[in-house]
Amino acid sequence: MRKWWPLVAVCLGAFILLVDVTIVNVALPQMADALDAPFSSLQWVVDAYALSLAALLLAAGSIADLYGHRKLYVSGLALFALASLACGLATDAGVLVAARAVQGAGGAAMFATSAALLGATYHGRDRGTAFGIWGAVNGAAAATGPILGGLLTEHIGWQAIFLVNLPVAAVAILLTLRVVRADRTARHQARTGRVDVPGAVTFTLAAAAVTYGLIRSTEAGWTSPTVMITFAVAAASLIAFVLVETRLGRRGGQPMLDLALLRRPSFAGLMGGALLLQGGAFGCLVLVSLWLQSVLGLGPVEGGLALTPMAVVSFLVAAIAGRHIQRLAPRLPIGVGLLLIAAGMYLLYDAMSADATASSLVIGLAVGGAGVGLATPVLVSAATGSVPPQRMGMAAGAVNTFRQLGMTLAIAVLGAVFTHTAQKRLSGLVPDAHDAASALAGGQAQRLIAAAPHGNQAEARELIHRVFADGMQDVFLCAAAAAAVGGLLVLALVRPTPTPSAPGASGSAGPAKEPAATEEPATAGRP
C-alpha cells in the first residue's frame, strides 16, 4: 500500500485543480448577486483562471525541468491554496478575478508536473495502473464539480467552493514532501538551462489582450478606441512572440514553443483540434448555467445536476473505450469525437426554445460528452507521436495550452454572440436594449422581470425566456460550427507517423497505430 501514496498525493492536487474549473459555473449567479458584478466580470472569473493556466503551462514545464518537478508541484499547491483563500475572502469582482489568475498560475505548476511525477515514480505495470487511476480521478473531478459546487453554494455560500481547497491542498503538500522523491538531476539542469521569459511574457500578453478585447467589445462596441487599441496590442504581442521564439530557436536555445513544429500538418491539425474541442464543448457552459438558474429559477444543486450528463458520459466513454481507441490512427477518435461534439451542440440548438426546460439539455449534453470522451484521451499521445522524440515534452505541453486557450477565447466569443443577439431581439421593446442585454447576460433575468410594471410581468417573463433562448441558439450554433471545423481539420491534416513510442508509452508506432496516451489517459471529463 505504501507504494501508492505518491499517487494519492498527485491525485489530490489534480482533483482540486480540475474541480475548480467546473465548480465555478454553478456559483456564477450567486457571485453576480453578492458582488454586484456585470457579465464581463463573470466571464473573467472563469477566463482569468483558464487564461493564466494556458499561458503559463509551457513556462511551468520548463521551470520544472530546470529546478525539479516535486519542488514546483509543492509550490503550485501552496500558491493555489493561498489564491483560493483570497478568492473566498474577495469582496468585489476585481479582487476575485485577480485571485483567480493567481490560482491559474498555481494550477499551471501542478498541471505541468503531475504526469512527470507519476512517470518518475512508477514503472512497468504499476505505471499503467497509476496513470489509469489518475485519469479516472480527473474525470471524476469534472463530473462531480457541478454537484459539489451546487451543494456548497446552496447550503454554505459561493465562498465555500474556494475555501474547500485549503485542507485538501494542505494534505497534498504534506504527503508530497513525505512520500514523493525529489528530482536528482534538477540542480545540474538549473545551472545550465534558462526559462524562456520573453516568450512567456509576449504569449501571455497576446492571449490576455485578445480575450479582453472580445469581452470589452460586448460593452463598448467593436469600433471603440479601447477595443481597437487592445486588438492592436494583441497583434503586436503575437508578432513579438513569433520573433522571439524564432530567434531563440535559431540560436540553439530552448523556446517555449518551437514554431517549426506548426509546419508539420499533423501537429498543426492537432493543435487546431485541441483549441476547437475545448471551445466547442465547454465554452457555452457559463451561459447554460446562467440560463438554468436565472431564467428557469433552478437552485445551484439542480443547476449542477443538469450539467452533469456531459461530464458523466465523457468519463464513461473514456473509461470503456480508452484502451480500444489507442489502437486506431489518432485522427479517427479525435476527428469523430469533434464531430460528435458538433452534433451535441446542434441538438442543444434544436432543443432550445422559450419553453425549454433542464431536461431538454440531456441528449445534447450526453452526445457532446461522448465526443469529448472519445477525443480527449488520445490528444497528448497523438501530439507527441507527430513530432521528433526530443520535442515530445513540448508537444504535450502545447496541447494542454491550446486546450485552455480554446476555452478562454470561446467564453469571450460566445458571450459576445449572446449579448449581440439579445440586444438585437430587445431593440425597440425596452428603453435601453444594450443595458437590458448586459443584465440578462449577467444573470439578472429575474431583476428585469421584477422591474416591469406589475400588470406586464407575465409578458416580460415571456420576453426574457424568448430572448435568452434565441441568444442560446446562436451560441450553440457557433459552438457546433467550431467543433465541426475542428473535426474536419483533424481528419484532413492528421496522419499516422512511424515515430517511436514515447518513454513510458505502451503502444508501438507505425502506419496504423499511435503511441499510447500515458501522459493523459481518460481525462475526458475535464474542461
UniProtKB/TrEMBL annotation:
The name under which this protein is listed is MFS transporter
Keywords, A to Z? Answer: Antibiotic resistance, Cell membrane, Membrane, Transmembrane, Transmembrane helix, Transport
Task: State the organism named in the record.
Answer: Streptomyces hesseae
Q: State the residue spans of region: Disordered.
A: 498-527
Q: Which domain of life is it from?
A: Bacteria
Identify its membrane topology class. Multi-pass membrane protein
Recorded hits in Gene3D superfamilies, A to Z, give:
MFS general substrate transporter like domains, Multidrug resistance protein D
Q: Which InterPro entries match?
A: EmrB-like (IPR004638), MFS (IPR011701), MFS_dom (IPR020846), MFS_trans_sf (IPR036259)
Taxonomy of the source species? Bacteria, Bacillati, Actinomycetota, Actinomycetes, Kitasatosporales
